[in-house]
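Renewal narrative, Specific Aim 1. Our central claim is that a sequence can be written position by position from structural information alone. The example that follows is taken directly from our test logs and has not been curated for this report. It begins with the structure tokens describing the chain, in the order in which they were read.
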């Protein structure tokens, strides 16, 4: 899996993939909304506390928000998407940040209730906006 390596302001290492597949995979790219949400959790006094809390990221793509939360002490963190290729990219990003003890991937399609997780997390996050 090829990929550009990016280090966020919060110190999280993210590999992107190519979106240009038979089916375009936008989640292979890091989006500004995800960077903004990561920064919000890391820097804003208005953000809810995350240390020791369970988190679920929907449509996670690269997984940057969940990885940022994991790096801040949230656990367990589930970074989820409905695209199997993105789950592989997220696993690579979990390893790149040495966060496999508290962050894991899960295949979740928000349009398919059968794929939902059984556990109710403390916090649910999701991000998407313009490409960087
Ligand atoms: C524009 S990308 C944003 C990725 C990431 N959240 C970010 O901001 O960098 C949208 C993401 O939503 C995922 N997605 C789209 N439909 C979905 C569905 N029904 N269930 C789960 N994920 C979905 C896509 O695979 C993709 O990873």
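The sequence written for that structure reads:
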């Amino acid at each position: 899996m090829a990929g550009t390596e990016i280090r966020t302001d919060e110190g999280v290492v993210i590999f992107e993939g190519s979106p240009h597949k038979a089916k375009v995979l936008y989640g292979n790219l890091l989006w500004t909304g995800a960077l903004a949400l990561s920064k919000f959790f890391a820097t804003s006094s208005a953000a809810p506390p995350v240390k020791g809390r369970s988190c679920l990221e929907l449509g996670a793509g690269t997984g940057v928000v969940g990885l940022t939360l994991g790096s801040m002490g949230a656990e367990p963190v589930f970074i989820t998407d409905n695209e199997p290729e993105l789950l592989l990219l997220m696993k690579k990003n979990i390893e790149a940040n040495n966060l496999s003890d508290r962050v894991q991937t899960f295949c979740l399609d928000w349009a398919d209730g059968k794929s939902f997780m059984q556990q109710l997390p403390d916090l649910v996050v999701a991000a998407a906006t313009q490409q960087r």
